[in-house]
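USER: Please consider what follows.
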Amino acid sequence: MAENILVTGGAGFIGSWLCKVLSESGKSVIAFDDLSTGELANLDGMQGVEFVQGNICNIDQLSKLPWSSITACYHLAAKGDVQESIDNPWLYTQVNIIGTQNILEFCRKKLIPTLFMSTCMVYGFDHSKDSGAINEEFPSLPLSPYGASKLSGEQLAISYHHSYGLPLKIARPFNTYGPFQKTNNREGGVIPLFLERRRQGKPLFIFGCGNQSRDFLYARDCADFLVSFMNTENTPMILNAGSDKSITINELAQTISFGEIDIEHVEHPHPQSEIPRLLCDSSLARRTLGWKPKVSLKEGLEENLNWLNDRLQA
């Protein structure tokens, strides 16, 4: 019987990178995606990747997947915009919690090893520990419905592990960027937004003062981390992934503008959800997986900009 690896959200930003890495290693992959944010073109040229359109909130669509042949599930399908989650929290409960339970229900019937894609946004910010990097023991203090919905998904998954013996791993990558990421305000991260505006010669807009800092992880490094995590035995259940380096948004804007593009500070639409500082401590992943990022921020920005330029010319 054929063996398949299921990637929910497989046509999305990180999902398509994951499918690429799995495809290059000779795996047969089912990319399940409703294309609400993902794009079928992201999977072009990938050998052994079958696309199935469907929504994780639709039981009938999920039931048509070949569960008897699925040997592992990477659950990446989710709503992932902090600002949108504040405007529409019910949507994030529906997709990120109920949709996740649907996946867990199917996976538990065959005890399919499952990797749940979480986020650094479950950590929030602890002012008593604002001088250090964030490891897996850092308090969970989500500041947005998005972060809360992902933390709820984690807890649901952990309950399935303990109640049913579901093999489970939880990944908490920090701010991931790279090709295939959207460049619009709703679905794009700050790097593709800045790069696209630079390419168009438009000012770079910074929400608030710009002193907030982030730890950026290139998408290929993130995908490699997910595969290594899934395939390594006797790991902790929860692992962070990041560059272990931070940069302020002001510094990022200066780096991307090269002094050639104006930088403007604008009012933050939801300042209450802004985490002042995110710096990853991924030492546990580095020790247990032998994994570490390969792409520097400088290299990643260049590759991302080249991809945007190539996409424009295509």
